[in-house]
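U., I forgot to send this yesterday:
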Amino acid sequence: MKNLCNIQWFFWTLLLLFNACVSTTKISIENRADLLMESSDFQQAQRLYEQEISGLEQSGKAVSGTLYEKAGKAALLAGDSLGCEEHFKMAMYYDKASPFVYHQLAAFFRISGNISKEIMVLEPLETKFPESVEAISERARLFELTLISDQPRIGLELWPSIPDQHKTEELLTLYLIANRKAGLVDSCHQVATRILREYPVNKQALEWQAIRYYNLAEDRYQREIKAYEANKTNRQYKILLAGLDRSTDDMKQSLTYFSKLWKVDPNPEYAIYLHNIYARFGDEVKAAYYRKFMK
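Result:
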């Protein structure tokens, strides 16, 4: 009985030692790769990481997401962009990817022009790691993509968290477009005013303000005329005159913006507005000038 116990103990000891050796071998491959990364031997590091991954896959054992990420970083530094992309995709699949992985995959998809996939990696980067350097640096791009994918409301929710230094003229213009698509008229006026304060010849902002004041003037003019036609009293006549004065002020504002627009872009559509404004003011010479450009 004692001999049997000794044999069993010896057997289990050998088994434990064997498992320990196997484990040590696995760890040593990854450790060797880690050391190669530190010494900038990226190609050899990639080869060892991939050897470790292949061994685990062939034995039917799980590969950690961190190992895929290590292999991806080695591939990236070794100049193997395809290998990097594949490893990083696997790291993301196992939900173990760091913000850097999402950031790098977004760069790959941006270069290839795959907008849908770029959105698919930038959205989880924003939701999972909103405070990360990578998420902050990609936020302006994600905002752009919300407009490309026709989701202006999502972009507007994202806007306050975009750093001010990233809010260039181009991005502010997209912000104006997002507000316009969302039907936020008052916000459009505020944004356009801000843009023109910093960038006086911004076409989108000039156009918004020009058309806005034109419509305000025209709507007020028609409204006051209609009200007077329905009630021709002295009191209503005074109200009409006051309303027409305000309409004229708005039309002058519109003219200021359209004149600047015309210098930036002599567009036939702008010519229509300029013709109508000068016709309203009774200036037939200038109205005739812009009539030539109308289509």
